[in-house]
């Protein structure tokens, strides 16, 4: 009896999240891009928690858009209203998102622990698109099949070598905003403001 009640509570919570999403999605259609050109791509994330948090960070750091792959709804409550400010685009598969990004001149980056260049050592292009995969299964595609996809890593010094996806997205957005804020302050700068820190 207890497991039935728990399943029903979960089902009701999902339905309420869907209703919230529909309400907020109508407002999202009027959202305008942030001040920065970077794009966040969320590849198959679970609809319950991290997506809303990533929208919140995306709004805080002036992200241009968030693209969602394989997700037709999510709970906007953790976004704390940010979903209405950051344009969202929905794709059924990575391939359509990838084609759109390339057509618009974006460089796609995936993040993998211990692989790729440390993000703070990379001179990020203005049109950067950062791809984050499912919390358990990672990205839905084989990166070697997509030549333009670059690899980045966030250096970690603990034993687990694992960050929550919303935390990783926040770190990347901070680094991107830091580099471009510094370039805006000093147009002759070819890289971030490391020298002034």
TrEMBL record:
Q: Does the keyword Methyltransferase apply?
A: yes
Which parts of the sequence belong to the tRNA/rRNA methyltransferase SpoU type domain? 38-174
Q: Which GO terms describe its molecular function?
A: RNA binding; RNA methyltransferase activity
What do the Gene Ontology cellular component annotations say?
cytosol
Pfam families listed in its UniProt record:
SpoU_methylase (PF00588)
Q: Which UniProt keywords apply?
A: Methyltransferase, Transferase
A Gene Ontology annotation in the biological process aspect, one of them, is: RNA processing
Task: Indicate whether Protease appears among the record's keywords.
Answer: no
**InterPro entries recorded:** Alpha/beta_knot_MTases (IPR029028), rRNA_MeTrfase_TrmH (IPR004441), SpoU_MeTrfase (IPR001537), tRNA_m1G_MTases_N (IPR029026)
Q: Which residues form the signal peptide?
A: none
| Protein's name according to its UniProt entry | TrmH family RNA methyltransferase
Source organism per entry reads Desulfobacter hydrogenophilus
